[in-house]
Amino acid sequence: MAGRRDERFVSDQRIKLDHSQGQMRNVSASGVYFLTDADLKPGESFRFMLDFSGLQAGAISARCEARVVRVEPQGTLKGVGAAFDSIEFLRIPESS
């Protein structure tokens, strides 16, 4: 798409929304596009979590806040494009 600020990277990472879940399709430094059954509207702010395991540094969780830029039908789901407002990375403690 013309006018994008940052390079997009394909991803199939699961995301955890406050009251639903989604499947990421691509991500960049400025935003994310994912599929979900959540009822999100353009302009709406929302939070979600991403978990990364198997990293050399250990498991990490990213707590993200974003604003919905667009919503489009994708079969029985909705495709949601959102711009990041903030991302906080948290180290997940190892279980003993």
Relevant terms:
96 residues, mainly beta, Thrombin, subunit H, 6-stranded antiparallel barrel, globular
Strand content: over 45%
- What is the helix content? under 10%
CATH superfamily: predicted glycosyltransferase like domains
Under the CATH scheme, which architecture would be assigned?
A: Beta Barrel
Based on the structure, what is the oligomeric state of the protein chains? single chain
Global Rg:
14 Å
Give the ordered list of helices and strands: EEEEEEE
Overall average pLDDT = 89
CATH topology: Thrombin, subunit H
Main beta sheet: strand number and arrangement?
6 strands, antiparallel, barrel
Brief write-up:
The protein is mostly beta strands and 96 residues long. The chain has no helices and 7 strands. The model has no long low-confidence stretch (mean pLDDT 89).
Task: Describe what you observe in this structure.
The protein is globular, with a radius of gyration of 14 Å. By secondary structure, the chain is an all-beta fold. It has strands at residues 9-10, 14-17, 21-27, 31-36, 45-52, 60-74, 77-91. The mean pLDDT is 89.
Which helices and strands appear, and what pairs or packs with what?
Layout: E1 9-10, E2 14-17, E3 21-27, E4 31-36, E5 45-52, E6 60-74, E7 77-91
Antiparallel strand pairs: 1-3, 2-3, 2-5, 3-4, 4-7, 5-6, 6-7
